[in-house]
Amino acid sequence: xxxxxxxxxPSPTGALHIGGVRTALFNWLYSKxxxxxxxxxxxxxxxxxxxxxxxxxxxxxxKWIGIEYDGEEYIQSTKVKDHIEVANQLLxxxxxxxxxxxxxxxxEQKKRARQKKLPYIYNRKWRDADEKETPKxxxxxxxxxxxxxxxxxxxxxxxxxxEIENNTIEDFIILxxxxxxxxxxxxxxxxxxxxxxxxxxxxxxxxxxxKQIQIYLAMGWEVPNFAHIPLIHTIEGxxxxxxxxxxxxDDYSKIGIMPDALRNYLLxxxxxxxxxxxxxLDESIKYFNLEGIGKSPSKLDMSRILSMNEHYIKTIDExxxxxxxxxxxxxxxxxxxxxxxxxxxxxxxxxxxxAKTLEDIFNNAKYIILDKINFNPDDLKLIDxxxxxxxxxxxxxxxxxxxxxxxxxxxxVNNLIKKHETNFKGVGQPLxxxxxxxxxxxxxxxxxxxxxxxxxxKRLGDKITR
Length: 466
Known about the structure:
It is a single chain. By secondary structure, the protein is mainly α. The protein is built from 19 helices and twelve strands. The protein has a three-stranded parallel beta sheet with strand order 1-2-3, covered by helices on one side. Strands 4-5-8 form a three-stranded antiparallel beta sheet. It has a two-stranded antiparallel ribbon with strand order 6-7. Strand 2 (37-42), helix 2 (52-65) and strand 3 (74-75) form a beta-alpha-beta unit. Helix 8 (259-268) crosses helix 10, helix 11 (318-332) crosses helix 13 (358-369) and helix 12 (338-351) crosses helix 13.
């Protein structure tokens, strides 16, 4: 058997959908597991809606999540002549015919089917018509002559055997009356010319597969293997669409979901291997198989994505996490100044505490990253006269210190608690507000040590003269 070759074939008519990413991932992992090749085909024959910016976004999205395709992108629109040639061959060998029905006639057939509550199937009016009887003033479409008798069985690598009555597959159009090829013709010719051995895609393509297999057989080509993956649904059980929030990779990257975490989540969305949950890249390739794909739709669960991301934030090497965080801030938040990078790097162990996303880490680190503190007006109300005295006394107490560490700071805080007959919150909260702008955030000692003596002095001084 030939070396395994798979493909992902998106249309550049919008941003890449999360369901498409999972399809690409399954194709890529399967080909890598089988020591085969994985290809990207851009199906851009819809000239009205296809945009270069969407093509770039698709390529960048695959790169971001770690999916690399072999060779150059295969651009469908450059192969249209080949598609038309195959349509003419099918016409010539009696597997296709010219149909002269007007759009009004077709609409009337559809209307009658709706009235009878039946699925519309073209009535094959011109299937066996005499060429001499054809109208001369109408530009025909070319329809494929589908099988009418018996049934066909698709040996699906995920769904098992799927049987369909042949008479339910209409004589589908392969060339429109303007001479342009349709999806089923173009995809089949492309897959054949690209040497695809396995077509792995969403199970909404099952009917297309039956149509495409007929083209393969009519042309005498080797039929590839087909695997149809159940679709992704929302948590409510509805089909996930491009209109849903969090449906594209950009939706995830901008809130700080890490590519490895999302890839791991998508791998486990409808696929399993024993009871293993966490897969690094090598393990994903080593264990991936089509047998592990379930037959039921999967539900996209944001809480599980956040939980997976939190696991990665906790366990990833801190150098790697730091690099990812700096890059994230540069793209989505605020570029971190070089002089502040070291402070963040040294503080990452507590800044990442309880963080589910890189955005959470940014929110925890804002007091270091931003030059100007944005005070929460409600939190500022906590600075009454007593709190003001505590802040001033704390500033005086730390003034002789060369640097700040917990050993030196704890006795100062404890003395202030005793002197003002309060508790840790009574001392810690006003200091946290003045140093970070909010009563929420990292622990007091972590804040003080991460800012350093000079910056703490400056911020406490700003308060006194404010």
